[in-house]
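User: Structure please.
Assistant: Input sequence and predicted structure:
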Amino acid sequence: MIRDRHTNDRFAGAIDVIVIGAGHAGLSMSYLLGMEGVDHIVLERGEIANSWRNERWDSLKLLTPNWQTQLPGRRYDGDDPDGFMPVSELVGFLENYAVSSGAPVATNTTVTSVRREGCRYRVTTDRGSLVARAVVLATGACNIPSVPKLAAELPDHITQLTPHDYHSADQVEDGGVLIVGASATGLQFAAELLHAGHDVTVAAGEHVRMPRCYRGRDIFYWLDRCGIHDERYDEVEDINRGRRLPSPQLVGSNDSNVLDLNSLAEQGARVSGRLMGVRDGIAQFSGSLRNVCALADLKMQRLLRTIDETADADGAPAPERFEGTRIDNEPLLTLDLDKAGIRTVIWATGFRPDYSWLDVPVFDRKGHVRHDGGIVDAPGLYLLGLPLMRRRKSSFIFGIEDDARDISEHLIDYLNKGGQNDGIHQDDTRARSDWRRTRHVPAPAGALGLRA
């Protein structure tokens, strides 16, 4: 465990780079900066891998197989490459990575403000302040659960949980559970609660369906093999939509090939359309479930056909096809929550990042930080670890290395040019475009089966 290793004296003067967040993204950036001899510090509000340690449910495993668990200078070397790493093991992996790389991490240090002062940044924390030439925001995209406003319409006696609140089925009181959201998180909650004997209803909106295994390989093998994970952000037709896509309906387990709405229905779950509102204890659902599921099925089949082109050339086993999502002839449109015995609602409706402490004018009208592949619209300010930040794989642990190398190279170039040249970010757009092209990795046109 690293706790303020060589960092106490850093709260008195200036430093080249401050990295905020000691998860896989922040530690990867620290490793690369350290390899180049860049003076830096990593600030972490809790412990190493704090979000994984304290804001995930007990049974969670990574969606990616162990052989894909890798960071700059470190990769999985255990005896179960095709298994899936539980959170507790991942925390240990990240702690060991921080120790072995000598990452200068200040733990239990909460950032309260980042503001521009001339050509530098002042980062204020609950332990003091520092001044840096550049700052990397590596706090991730899952800081605050996104709970819709209609949550206020639920009766007071119904317990409401988010993925940050939910730890295991044991904490859920007897009775029915309504899970809002049908991406990986929502479906994993549903499967776990069904196994525990709860009556479960899943309100499904837009989702990404895919099998765990296909043609003898894990689906992530094929996504890599076909170049889909390497598709760049500037190749995506609708980048804003692409960054909002939910996580695929997968579970970190080889016990079952498929986790989807069909498999949940077979276990006894009720499936409805998107939750639209609650009035007088009556939940109201969208009637578009059939269309939403048909679109998810269509995109999955498109993805599998894309994989087939490569798999055929590789001599893989014969193609497989999967049944379309089964929808009742009369889908559920309303549900009396009390009569149905619903005692708990779990909001598996996604997350959003928390930049409430960022006092730099870089936000658009929707509150998102303006950036070009992680290069923020302010000199010396960078993002790391967000969905589709630079590539399709950006939000996955194995995908952070390429992004971190790109950003660290740009950051070091910025420092070498004096750390105060606004033109790197704003005025000299031609130079930035040239830099972007030098980092280009060819990938298939469009997003293939994952087209936004």
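Residues 1 and 95 are 6 Å apart (CA to CA).
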